[in-house]
Design a protein that fits this description.
Number of strands: 6
Structural class: alpha/beta
Shape: elongated
Radius of gyration: 21 Å
Helix content: 40-55%
Distance between the termini: 30 Å
Length: 268
């Protein structure tokens, strides 16, 4: 189910969807007599690619989602755990450790370490599975954390969670009634908090990795389609699909007893 969910969601991302639409239009033009219809499909695909990489459109979509929660401020007197949700990574010994983490992963980890240092005695929980590589995302983040000066004794690894649903339930089994600060990308925070609340945990949100910015003054930056603006659309659509799936899954599971995910702590 997990793999099928990933495959389907990948094909429904804006760029693959527009490319499929465009190639379908070209096929109509080249191999059938419906050239006018094919041309319309191709034009729609090209227009769609322009719009999903155009800053005024992408920022309007993503910014409201990202700004639902404020940046973390040290207003709490005590924090027991700081949990950083997993993101992507590669395993490549020829590049620096910090480059082996995805940009989102590095941003999340940096924010987690910042908060950890505000609360001496707290522990850093790192989660994320291997995703086909020989090293889990949690362990890769731990390597970077150690290189940045975090003590080995302050790091806890949860290496088997494949998605936020599993991360939330493993966290609930591990921290129990202790206080938790949750670190993830700003666009992902709303959906992540829903999963943690459903698991019985009420963490303090610490969003990071903000992508959408309105303070762009140069016309050549604002009105020229760019890959980084396409990423904003992808993040918005990814979270929208994830929220729909969340509702569908929860409705289907109402009459079922959900399994409790066991928190498997491993050493760094």
């Amino acid at each position: 189910m997990f793999e099928l969910k990933k495959v389907v969601s990948s094909l429904l991302m804006p760029l693959p969807a527009m490319l499929i639409l465009g190639f379908f239009g070209l096929a109509l033009v080249m191999f059938t007599s419906k050239r006018k219809t094919g041309s319309l499909f191709t034009f729609a695909a090209l227009l769609g690619i322009f719009l999903i990489s155009f800053q005024p459109v992408t920022t309007k979509l993503l910014k409201p989602l990202e700004r639902q929660y404020s940046a973390f401020l040290p207003e709490q007197t005590e924090v027991d755990y700081v949990m950083v949700l997993g993101s992507g990574h590669v395993v490549d010994s020829s590049i620096p450790l910090t480059s082996e983490l995805s940009r989102a992963g590095l941003m999340r980890l940096s924010e987690g370490i910042r908060i950890l240092r505000l609360y001496p005695g707290s522990k850093l929980i790192l989660s994320g599975y291997a995703a086909g590589s020989e090293v889990s995302n949690a362990r890769m983040m731990a390597k970077v954390a150690l290189a940045l000066g975090v003590s080995k004794s302050d790091i806890i690894l949860l290496e088997t969670a494949q998605d936020t649903w599993e991360e939330a339930r493993q966290a609930a089994a591990f921290i129990q009634d202790k206080s938790l600060v949750l670190v993830t990308s700003a666009s992902h925070m709303k959906r992540a908090l829903t999963e943690f609340h459903n698991a019985g945990v009420k963490p303090t949100p610490a969003p990071t990795n903000y992508l959408a910015q309105t303070e762009i003054k140069q016309a050549w930056e604002k009105y020229t389609p760019k890959a980084r603006y396409l990423e904003q659309t992808e993040r918005y659509w990814h979270e929208t699909l994830g929220a729909w799936w969340q509702v569908l899954r929860d409705n289907l599971a109402k009459d079922d007893v959900e399994p409790v995910a066991e928190a498997v702590e491993t050493e760094v």
